[in-house]
Each structure stands twice: as structure tokens, then as C-alpha cells.
Amino acid sequence: LRRALGCGARMALCEMVEHSWSGCMRACPRGCQQQCSLADMQRHLETECRLQHAACRGGDLGCGWRGIIGERAEHERVCDVLRVERPLRELHERVRDFPSCTCKCVTFTTGG
Fold first, then answer.
1. Which are the contacts of 28, defined by CB distance < 8 A and separation ≥ 6?
2. In this structure, how many other beta carbons lie within 10 angstroms of the beta carbon of residue 108?
3. What pLDDT digit, counting tens, does each position of 62-88 carry?
4. At 86, which helix (H) or strand (E)?
């Protein structure tokens, strides 16, 4: 019998591959304390981990905030860039349709 590297369980070598992929629970490498199998770890890191890195949704408008996803909502609640984004978007929509407009209009891509 051999010990699994992740959890230390003892099993026959022929069982080790399947156990290592789907049965052996490992701690998230970011330190969020979530336990996942290797089969689920990528999904956890990309969509579930509360310590996932994130940027402000106003980044394309000039906000440089970066942090963990769990803190983004609080930042965006007070973000100066996002506070003015909606009025700027509405103004842009009105000005863009003027026949005499010669500016190179910016395309807004954030929600709002």
C-alpha cells in the first residue's frame, strides 16, 4: 500500500491515479480554506474562490483598483469612476448622434 500525496490515505498503487484526481481533497492554493479535488480545483480557482483577484469594473474608464473579489463590491460602491460612469454614458449617447459631431467617440463597455 502507498500513501496518497494529498491526503495521506493508504491504498493500492492501481487506485492512486483515480483517487488523486477525484477523491483526494486538497486545500486551495490561495489559502481560502476550501477543500477541492484536483478535478474541481480549476473551477474553484476561476469562479468560486473568495480570494480570487479582481479589478474594478471601471478599469476601462481609468480606475486602477485591483484586489480580491470579495472586496470589489465595497470598492465599487465608493469608486469615483463608476459614480460618474452612468451620466457620462448618457451624455455620450446624446452627443454621438449630433450630425456635426467629429469626435472619435469612446465605446463604453462596462455595465450600467
1. 34, 35, 36, 41, 44, 45, 49, 51
2. 15
3. 899 999 998 999 999 999 999 888 787
4. helix 80-96
